[in-house]
Design brief:
272 residues; alpha/beta; two-stranded antiparallel ribbon; 18% strand; globular; cytoplasm
Length: 272
């Protein structure tokens, strides 16, 4: 896949996997810059192409009192500052048609949330911005069904589509990753594995999503072995007190060791 379609991408020719990583939501400027600085340091050391991830708004919440954001424009300006400060591309998710053109003024990749990936007008609006469109696989969809979402991007005049697997519903309160889907989806678009969301435990009676961060290494290593093009990892200096999805985020203190191990696995896979 050609990562060079993304502005500011580094290490695009390293033959390594690429990484989308950052906090679930933009909670403030200081935290975003601090996380970006750390991940840039690690990915530069390991020659990993890197895109900073942060949601400018969290529209899909279990409860009305859940954190949704600090203000759309304020959060988008922080994403722009991260990009300008560290010379890296950025990605954020959009939820409404009007979000597409607005967010495209600030970021390099537009992400379609899993619950919304069948919303044709939203996918088309993202594609029409000319940005890369990252299509999260619906938790309710088969891998093969994602070819239709990719085709919508193409029919809108763009060939810049990725697929991101974030697990499939397994009962009411658990997710699983079917690794057979990775090569199936790679047949029609570059494919990313969302490691942290795949370990969510949704629909808790408390209204706060749970997770299994202890399994992040297991899922990530399996993804690299299965041949994914990229990984998606939400990370934070203090996941316990993160304002969104803290239960399944990776403490950033463990990120370098994990990425070092994954880079080693990737090198072996590249020789096969």
């Amino acid at each position: 896949m050609d990562l060079n379609v993304i502005p500011k991408i580094k290490h695009a020719n390293s033959d390594n996997f690429f990484l989308l990583a950052g906090p679930c939501a933009i909670e403030g400027e200081e935290m975003a810059l601090r996380i970006a600085e750390k991940v840039v340091e690690i990915t530069d050391k390991l020659n990993i192409p890197y895109v900073f991830k942060g949601s400018f708004k969290k529209a899909n919440r279990s409860r009305i009192d859940s954190f949704t954001g600090i203000g759309d424009e304020k959060a988008l300006k922080i994403l722009r500052k991260v990009s300008e400060t560290f010379d890296v591309p950025t990605v954020t998710d959009i939820h409404e048609i009007s979000d597409a053109a607005m967010a495209a003024e600030y970021v390099d990749v537009l992400q379609i949330p899993a619950f919304l990936v069948r919303q044709t007008d939203l996918v088309v609006a993202a594609a029409e911005t000319g940005k890369v469109v990252n299509l999260k696989k619906g938790q309710f969809m088969s891998p093969g069904a994602m070819q239709h979402a990719v085709q919508k991007v193409k029919d809108a005049g763009s060939d810049k589509a990725w697929i991101t697997d974030r697990g499939t519903m397994f009962g009411y309160q658990d997710m699983i990753v079917d690794f057979r889907g990775i090569p199936e989806m790679r047949a029609f678009a570059p494919t990313v594995l969302d490691v942290t969301h795949s370990l969510q435990q949704p629909n808790q009676t408390s209204g706060v999503t749970g997770g299994r961060p202890d399994m992040i290494g297991t899922i990530a290593r399996a993804g690299i072995a299965a041949g994914v093009d990229g990984l998606f990892i939400e990370t934070h200096f203090d996941p316990t007190n993160a304002k969104s999805d803290g239960a399944n985020m990776l403490n950033i203190a463990y990120l370098e060791k994990l990425l070092t191990d994954l880079t080693a696995i990737r090198k072996v896979i590249n020789t096969l």
